[in-house]
UniProtKB/TrEMBL annotation:
Pfam families: CM_2, PDT
Span of domain Chorismate mutase: 28-119
Protein name: Bifunctional chorismate mutase/prephenate dehydratase
Keyword Ion transport: no
Molecular function in Gene Ontology: chorismate mutase activity; prephenate dehydratase activity
Source organism of the structure: Rhodothalassium salexigens DSM 2132
Role played: Catalyzes the Claisen rearrangement of chorismate to prephenate and the decarboxylation/dehydration of prephenate to phenylpyruvate.
Alphabetized InterPro entries for the sequence: ACT-like_dom_sf (IPR045865), ACT_dom (IPR002912), Chor_mutase/pphenate_deHydtase (IPR008242), Chorismate_II_sf (IPR036263), CM_dom_sf (IPR036979), CM_II_prokaryot (IPR002701), Preph_deHydtase (IPR001086), Preph_deHydtase_CS (IPR018528)
Length: 430
């Protein structure tokens, strides 16, 4: 590591703020008007939480109706009309359209994901279990554990985590029956693909049964809230996290870097050690579990830092037709000219949208590659079934890894002008 030539902006003391997120005021803390306003804000926030919980319950009820009628999860017309009505109402209340749009797009996304999980669980007895034994990298506090909590919460069950020290351990727990399924990180918006997981998919008999995207909030964590980054003597960090925070770490100084199995492992080593100048990089939210303080936040090279996790199980899952689905395959082509183009032409000819294409070297075979492909589509769709048959004829080996519900929710096309011009109505977002 090199000594910093200039302290990064995140080292500077931030402007003081209060619980409302606004700048700190100069009024005395016991000012009656200030206390009353903050008390009222807390009451409003609790009411908002109650209403969001009630809204989720209504979303589940809608999902049950869609399950009985075979209706698609998404109805973009209803979403667009409902959002337009909310924007108009917001204007009447002095609330800006971008704020309303951003807020309710998040609420709509949650509703779509919840309904998707509900329909998927109803179609698969395994997905609807009350207890979910889920293998994850690291223990409580790790990002894998956080993603597992979110995934299980949508399905209405209880998480029973099975911790592993490596991706191979996590996959093995499913194969040995110690876990019902596992979460594995496969790509990150900052550091890219996680190659070891791609290789595991090829070498094991596991099937992809789901996916979930999780926001990653790296923070520098230490026992002493007053520790400065320049004073850190040793930093515990997972290799993937190091890659995602490389710009910040290049300015850190002469701290010794110790790679760990997971972010939970990194935080645990700080707690268990006796070095007051030791630090770890992990989730700012999880630091409290270890009684650690975030001395610097937002460390990732890219501020929009997300990891896509795949959910793998011992057998395939069935995806209802009302649900947006993905299908993943791994294949190997010949080395003749045009082999890859010929294989992928099957997707083009059958109008199947390719979402991701990744190449990986084949161990022991220099310059030979295998390819990982994600497409938008359900295996029950005759077009995709036909495309895969045609593709198989142009490959030396092809393995369907699984068909599973897509986690991403594309926001409705909602420009401000369209919202303003939409007529009055009583439509509501799903």
């Amino acid at each position: 590591m090199t000594s910093p030539t200039q302290a990064p902006p995140s080292h500077r003391d931030p402007a003081p703020t209060d619980a409302t997120g606004q700048g700190a005021d100069t009024a005395p803390a016991d000012d009656p008007a200030l206390v009353a306003a903050r008390t009222r804000i807390a009451e409003i926030d609790r009411t908002l939480l109650d209403l969001l919980a009630e809204r989720r319950a209504m979303s589940r009820r809608i999902a049950e109706h869609k399950l009985a009628t075979g209706t698609a999860v998404r109805n973009t017309r209803v979403e667009r009309e409902g959002l337009a009505a909310l924007i108009r109402r917001g204007r009447e209340l002095g609330l800006e359209a971008p704020f309303i749009t951003r807020l309710f797009q998040t609420v709509i996304e949650d509703s779509v994901q919840l309904q998707t999980a509900t329909l998927h669980a109803a179609r698969n007895a395994e997905a609807g279990r009350s207890e979910h034994r889920v293998a994850v990298l690291g223990g409580p506090g790790s990002y894998s554990h956080q993603a597992a909590e979110k995934y299980v919460a949508r399905r209405g069950g209880t998480l029973v985590p099975v911790s592993g020290r490596s991706f191979a351990d996590v996959a093995r727990a499913v194969g040995d029956g110690a876990a019902d399924y596992a979460l594995l990180p496969i790509e990150n918006t900052t550091s890219g693909s996680i190659n070891e997981v791609y290789d595991l998919l090829y070498d094991t008999d596991l099937h992809i049964i789901g996916e979930i995207t999780h926001r990653i909030d790296h923070a520098l964590l230490a026992k002493d809230a007053g520790l400065t980054p320049e004073a850190i003597s040793v930093l515990y960090v997972h290799p993937q996290v190091y890659a995602q925070c490389s710009h910040f770490l290049a300015r850190l100084g002469d701290a010794r870097i110790v790679y760990c199995d997971s972010t939970a492992d990194a935080m645990g080593r700080v707690v268990q050690g006796d070095d007051p100048h030791a630090a770890a990089i992990g989730s700012g939210n999880s630091g409290a579990l270890f009684d650690l303080h975030a001395i610097v936040s937002d460390l990732a090279n890219q501020k929009q830092n997300h990891t896509r996790f795949i959910v793998v199980g011992p057998k395939p899952t069935q995806v209802p037709g009302q649900v947006d689905a993905k299908t993943s395959v791994i294949f190997v082509t010949g080395q003749e000219a045009g082999a890859l183009v010929n294989a992928l032409a099957a997707m083009r000819d059958n109008r199947i949208n390719m979402v991701k294409l990744e190449s990986r070297p084949i161990p022991g075979k220099p310059w030979a590659e295998r390819f990982y492909l994600d497409v938008a589509g359900n295996l029950n769709d005759p077009r995709l079934d036909r495309a895969l048959d045609q593709m198989r004829s142009h490959t030396r080996r092809m393995k369907v890894l699984g068909c599973y519900p897509a986690d991403s929710v594309q926001p409705v096309d909602m420009t401000l002008a369209a919202a303003i011009d939409t007529g009055d109505g009583d439509a509501h977002a799903p």
